[in-house]
Amino acid sequence: MIATSDVQDLDMKTSLTQMTNFPSGSSSKTFKHYVQLLDGKFTKYSYDAKTNLRLYGSKSAPEYNLKNVKVPTKIYVGESDFLSTVEGAKKLSEALPNSLGYQVVDRPEWNHIDFAFSNHAKDLVFDSLITELNSFRDSTPSEKIAIDLYKSRGIKIEC
Q1: What is the pLDDT of residue 55?
Q2: Helix, strand, coil percentages for the chain (3-state, nearest 5)
Q3: Residues 135-155 pLDDT 10s
């Protein structure tokens, strides 16, 4: 159920290889943080009250300030995704200052892990994503943005 709801269109060889390594690259802390987010608030990881007070200055974990997200962001979501819902994608998209909106994948049974496992990911998601990313290639002076970011953080760089 977690892997996909689009079972008939899986690349089984790739899926089996990936699933034998699941959840490598993750941790119990990551899963605990995900569960903490199910209350609908996008907060930093919540430790015990004493640790939160030391780290965050309050007994509970603060919400992320999404106004600080400066990069243009587009969210892709599946209709059958119970981990990241269409409603959640819409809410997050509306909260981001440079949102490019959200796109529901044009396949009703599309689920969270279909982005990695489905044979249709290229056609339904990645082709349009790459096209959209390429539209920024010439219009975004990435070196200048990086230099400005370093300078704003007081980091000296030599060019």
Answers
A1: 97
A2: 45, 10, 45
A3: 877 665 666 666 676 677 776
Q: Which of 63, 33, 26, 31 is nearest to 47 (CA)?
A: 33
Distance of alpha carbon 49 from alpha carbon 47, whole angstroms: 6
**For range 84-94, the mean pLDDT:** 93
pTM: 0.73
Say how far apart CA 133 and CA 147 lie, in whole Å.
21
Instruction: Report the relative pairing of strands 99-104 and 73-77 from DSSP bridges.
Output: parallel
Give residue 56's pLDDT: 97
Tokens representing 150? 């370093």
Strand partners, 76: 103
For 59, the token pair is 């007994």
Tell me the three-class secondary structure of 69-126, residue by residue: CCCCEEEEECCCCCCCCHHHHHHHHHHCCCEEEEEECCCCCCCCCHHHHECCHHHHHH
